[in-house]
Design brief:
The protein is α/β, with parallel strands linked by helices. The chain folds into 2 domains: 117 residues, no CATH class; 166 residues, no CATH class. It is 36% helix and 16% strand. The strands form 2 sheets. Strands 2, 3, 4, 5, 6, 7, 8 and 9 form an 8-stranded mixed β-sheet that branches. It has a two-stranded antiparallel sheet with strand order 1-10. It is globular, with a radius of gyration of 21 Å.
Length: 338
Amino acid sequence: MAEVTFLGQAEPVDEYGRALYAVARSVLRALLDQLSSDDLTDLNCDRADVTLRQLAKVARLHRDKGMRGDGFEWAVHEAITGGEHRVSEIVADVLRRVSPGSFKQMEAPTSLMFGHERARYLGFTDAVVSNANGDAVLLPDGSGRPFLFGSWVPVAARGHAAEPLLATRIKKVWKTDIFLSDSHKARFAATTIKSNWHQLEDGAGLRVAIVPEAPDLRPGTRRFQSLHLAVLPDPDGFMGLFNDAYEAVAGAILTIGRHDKAPYYLKPSAKALRLQEQLEKYKLAKVPEIIDALNDAAQQNLITVDHRLMSVEAPGWLYINEQRTPIIAPRPRFERLD
């Protein structure tokens, strides 16, 4: 089982600056919660005593490997498996477009979580294969015979190193985030998920892409290059707010941790940049203290935080709480952005 933190919008946005604080608070909380026992051992402190500078050293913020990418992938997977109609209906529609013959009579889609970076967890790839029908196949690009699911997915789990070993028509299937199918789990469509549709990349073997609605992308189904695109509705504009606050937190983490900033990071809004600057002032402060300060400045009930144990064969995190040397730092206080 893997513990996943989902962030959602509980109330309408009041003042944008306060809403940014609310989302930033939850992003930091999620990043702190996802520290493993190995991370805490390396940092030589309890979770409650982790400073922002320490968090910045171990936070996973690369595209599709950090809080935003993983969080959105898990949210989509959970929505499909949970039968959330606003997601499952669009996904079912796009699957019928991918293979009308295979999914014409489909009642509801199913999802198998993949992501080659997760295959390092003991037994994860075996679990994916065991959850599929023994004769299950991957639906590749073009015409011709499909590929046996159980034979090729363990190869794809090696990541980019597997590309020379994969057949031409499924050369990019290692980039899969989830495999979509129906309740029979006999035919699977490799699917990529992005929280920002501008980061989409197609490739041989990838059939479906799932992204949230954006100002320049309406919800529904359409084609994008070789991909069948499922655009999920975002009626409250929460994803835009989330991305803005995430970029502010990510900017602070990258600066404090002295990481290189990759070109796919977007520039935060003016108010989010001010949030980033304030965060950077408190690099020696404990993250829970920063969260408390953000909570004082935030729109209190904007964000819902939902902790769930998702069914995968990844090991649950072990929490080690030992006494460590305390660190003295200034108490964080955040100014109004509005």
